[in-house]
Design brief:
binds magnesium ion, single chain, alpha+beta, 9 helices, six-stranded mixed beta sheet, OB fold (Dihydrolipoamide Acetyltransferase, E2P), binds adenosine-5'-triphosphate, Rossmann fold
Amino acid sequence: MSRLKESNTAMEQPHLSLVDLVKVFRDGSGSETRAVDGISLDINRGEFVTLLGPSGCGKTTTLRMIAGFEQPTDGEIRVRGENISRVPPFERNMPMVFQSYALFPHLTIFENIAYGLKIRKADREVIRNEVAVASQMVNLVGLENRYPGELSGGQQQRVALARALVLKPEIILFDEPLSNLDAKLRIQTRTEIKRVQHMLGITAIYVTHDQAEALSMSDKIVVMNRGQIMQVGSPEDVYNHPANPFVADFIGNANFLESRITAVGDSSVTVEIGGSSFEIRAERVYDGAAVGDEVYVSAKPEAMDISEGPGDLMGRVDVNSFVGATTEYKVEFDGQFITVIHSNSGGSVKLFHLDDEVAIHLYPEYCRVYRR
Ligand SMILES: Nc1ncnc2c1ncn2[C@@H]1O[C@H](COP(=O)(O)OP(=O)(O)OP(=O)(O)O)[C@@H](O)[C@H]1O
Ligand SMILES: [Mg+2]
């Protein structure tokens, strides 16, 4: 039934490829938005890939083009090497799970999950079996006769997931599916989604602007900004080896300290911050660094610590937020604000108060240097 045929080389091809994909929206006054601006990406079978980026960077538009709800202005979408531009959405078998569950309120949970199979005119017996399997998979057994209004948000989202799973999807698409859930349920449900996806080996494309979600769920993260891809890599890769300051800032909330290069050696450069010198390994510095360059030293909160001092960088506590396992401090230092996350493990940890004078310790092995 599906027009997407298995070809001989299916195993060697990426499952899905985006090739120079572009989407330009034109409004009535003729002004243009390049929502997606030349994206190329290969996704392998069974991979969990996250599109991560700030609001408006083109995540949903990319997903909608993959689903077929939106026609690309330019470029191609290929499934196992075959261009699917002319395949209508319902034949792509790539269901989308949304933030707003989009369940039918007047249908029971069973009927909601069965909906796609009914449309396909599947047998009653088949429907009953498939719905039972999907309900079991997402822990909904016993709730089949209720209506969506009688379920919690997390349960409704699991119905949406089951409704997609019964279709045995080619690829499953998620657009910020957890945004309406509270913090604890978000973590539970993301574990659940990941478990089911992994168990079934389904290829998944997941859109979010939440870095913790992306880091914890993905095989591969695609960091986007202004319709373009900034970096593609494993969670460890994009976190520890950000390709540019945008990625360092977006994933990991890096601090950018104004600094200057004072020496360049074979394997390291020396930077000066607040009158103190720090040596940073060459592979963490841009190519062609020279003495006198004005730079930013990027340091993620965990690349620093805080103490009573004395220390190299003395500052003043501007904000302290105790969040249990850690305390997040914003420290004013030399006219700049620096975020430091201090672990409270070990019990008798000193907490600092507003306006306390504190020392910031910088661990240069975790810092990077970017041109200013
Ligand atoms: N139908 C449309 N007509 C005109 N412009 C659009 C349309 N849909 C999206 N855009 C614009 O395209 C850009 C990308 O939008 P998109 O919805 O893909 O962003 P997003 O990354 O999903 O953001 P968010 O995290 O806020 O959901 C935005 O500037 C948006 O205003
Ligand atoms: Mg969106």
